[in-house]
Specification:
286 residues; alpha/beta; Cobalt-precorrin-4 Transmethylase, domain 1; Methyltransferase, Cobalt-precorrin-4 Transmethylase, Domain 2; 5-stranded mixed sheet; 18% strand; S-adenosyl-L-methionine; lyase; EC 2.1.1.107; 4pyrrole_Mease_sub2; multifunctional enzyme
Length: 286
């Protein structure tokens, strides 16, 4: 490979010619009849959808989606595709998980090309593995297309790095679906300093999470953030200290992500996402 000095001496016309001869990016994978593709939609911004995920959405005969898949992503699906909502909300399970599993099997056995699309990444608190186990038991072929999980996408759009040499040498992802009477979380480990704790689906248990983290050693002054609808034009970020988590959670709505750690303080300097610009772009695309 040419050194930086040698590259800088090349004529501009040569660099342009080299760029123009780059091979076009193509997607060779195909979604076959009677097959299911488990697809991660990412945290919401349609432009974060992977090329392969978009290709499979456009090949599908049937798409089963949940409430975390944004309207902008659903709008990319061809009009003649069968759309089936199998979403769940806290306290309102519109479609039981067993029903979703059976729909996937039935549509595949009918010979359809099926996409099961989930918000974020299907293998991160998304029950993706459970659905694939059912398909495997039924002898259904399947593929997995990963997506950007909310912990990576939402924090990036909020200007919060998951790790930093001075503030966090590790990051941990946990679910907030906790039951106090059967809590098996290792709170001593979760409450350690110099790490970032990201909590999915934790709004309803925010008071319990706050109590346990402080009780097991996390400083009450630790910076925290709640990111509502991260990466989308309507994104909101509520910031404060760990002692204020339960109070801040009262103003946030699902889907939201809780971030605990010193890295949250960096968001004042690293904030870059302009929701007003994003809203303007969406109006222009409409």
């Amino acid at each position: 490979m040419a050194s930086k000095e040698k590259v800088s001496q090349l004529p501009l016309s040569h660099l342009r010619a080299t760029t123009h001869h780059r091979p076009a990016l193509t997607v060779s994978s195909q979604l076959r009849h009677g097959e299911v593709a488990l697809v991660g939609a990412g945290p919401g911004d349609a432009e974060l959808l992977t090329i392969k995920a978009l290709s499979f959405l456009q090949q599908a005969d049937v798409v089963l989606y949940d409430y975390l898949v944004s309207d902008e992503i659903l709008a990319l699906i061809p009009d003649d595709t069968i759309l089936v909502c199998v979403g769940k909300r806290a306290g309102h399970h519109s479609v039981p998980q067993e029903k979703t599993n059976q729909l996937l099997v039935d549509f595949a056995k009918q010979g359809h090309r099926v996409v099961r699309i989930k918000g974020g990444d299907p293998f991160v608190f998304g029950r993706g593995a459970e659905e694939l186990e059912v398909l495997a038991d039924a002898g259904i072929r399947f593929q997995v297309i990963p997506g950007i999980t909310a912990a990576a996408g939402a924090t990036a759009y909020a200007g919060i790095p998951l790790t930093h040499r001075d503030h966090a040498q590790s990051a941990m992802f946990i679910t907030g679906h906790l039951k106090a009477e059967s809590d098996e979380m290792d709170w001593s480990t979760l409450a350690r300093g110099n790490q970032t704790l990201v909590i999915y689906m934790g709004l309803m248990k925010s008071d319990y999470i706050q109590e346990q983290l402080i009780r097991h050693g996390r400083q009450s002054s630790t910076p925290i953030a709640i990111i509502e609808r991260g990466t989308q034009a309507c994104q909101k970020v509520f910031k404060g200290q760990l002692s204020q988590l339960a109070e801040l959670a009262q103003d946030a709505q699902a889907p939201s992500l809780i971030v605990v750690g010193e890295v949250v303080a960096l968001s004042e300097k690293l904030q870059w996402f302009d929701q007003e610009d994003q809203s303007l772009q969406q109006r222009q695309y409409a």
